[in-house]
Design goal:
By secondary structure, the chain is of the alpha/beta class. The chain has a single domain (9-311), classed as Aldolase class I (TIM Barrel, Alpha-Beta Barrel), CATH 3.20.20. It is built from 13 helices and 8 strands. An 8-stranded parallel beta barrel has the order 1-2-3-4-5-6-7-8, surrounded by 8 helices.
Length: 312
């Protein structure tokens, strides 16, 4: 087991991975306000949109307009998801700081998600990564469904390691491991991270968990225990994947931040402001969200408030 990091970077994915699976299509100005609130809370890396065909993901049809309206703040990095060269060309034209590419560990899911076999996505990633480097754009890659596929079942570690070797040809700034449908458990997380570190020593690892089976926060802790210092999360816990059955939301930024704060891990993010943004998001969506902290409150603040009420 590695030494858990003292500082963790939370990558906010609510504006992209969160909203892409919600039935509502928020106005561009509302999306920009969502991002502004996250930045004001202290988030410094955000997935803000995806450059995909609007007919497949209509929630992301305004990608260029969102980028144009983003608040510019020193030290803040905005990430756009691309799945092919056409998407990268669109992203590059906006001047976005960083692009992310997803490569799915199983052919069936990659075909459903991206319209091509996994090998074709790997080939596209390497080409895109090289083009990004020439253009001065940061590029990261995520191996999706690394812990299990909704169509093919278990994903062997050997398969993930083969993909790690292939995608490293693109020299990513960061290598992501995603539990896209929320099937992983902590022991699996620790084992896979250890195997990936042996295969690609020195590359920064980022983890992306979903809470479909209520293991997301436990998996985040397992990743921390394995030395991972970058974790994806979504304010309110919104999101999922529109191409995977029953793939419910990401781990909530609210709940993850509470875990980190109480564990003495620094993030630079205000839990109070994140909860306020969750409550604002509930108003925009017109319904509740999965996050627990907006419902339960911050401890020990709730205890102090209850004590004051008892004393009055």
């Amino acid at each position: 087991m590695s030494q858990p990091p003292r500082h963790v970077s939370i990558i906010e994915v609510g504006p992209r991975d969160g909203l892409q699976s919600e039935p509502e299509i928020l106005a561009t100005a509302t999306k920009i306000e969502f991002i502004r609130r996250a930045v004001d809370a202290g988030i410094r890396r955000l997935e803000v949109t995806s450059f995909v065909h609007p007919k497949r993901v209509p929630q992301m049809a305004d990608a260029e307009d969102v980028i144009r309206g983003l608040p510019r703040k020193e030290g803040v990095i905005y990430i756009g998801l691309v799945l092919n060269r056409k998407g990268f060309d669109r992203a590059q034209a906006t001047g976005i700081h960083e692009i992310g590419m997803a490569v799915v560990a199983s052919d069936t899911y990659n075909q459903r998600n991206q319209g091509v076999p996994t090998a074709e996505s790997v080939k596209a990633w390497v080409e895109i990564a090289r083009a990004a480097k020439l253009a001065g754009v940061r590029a990261n890659v995520m191996i999706s469904s690394a812990f299990g596929c909704p169509f093919e079942g278990e994903v062997p570690v050997k398969r993930v390691l083969e993909l790690v070797e292939q995608v490293m040809e693109g020299d990513p700034v960061e290598l992501g491991l995603a539990d896209s449908i929320g099937v992983g458990v902590p022991s699996q997380v620790r084992d896979l991270i250890g195997a990936v570190r042996d295969k690609a020593p020195g590359v920064p690892i980022r983890c992306h968990f979903h809470n479909t089976r209520n293991t997301g926060i436990a998996n985040a802790q397992a990743a921390l225990d394995a030395g991972v210092a970058s974790l994806d999360a979504s304010i309110g816990g919104i999101g999922g994947c529109p191409f995977a059955p029953a793939a419910t939301g990401n781990i909530p930024t609210d709940d993850l931040l509470y875990l980190l704060d109480r564990s003495g891990v620094e993030t630079g993010v205000s839990l109070e402001r994140i909860i306020a943004t969750s409550q604002w998001l509930i108003e925009q969506l017109g319904r509740g969200t999965p996050a627990m902290l907006p419902k339960a409150g911050i401890f020990p603040n709730v205890a102090e408030a209850n004590r004051a009420r008892l004393a009055s």
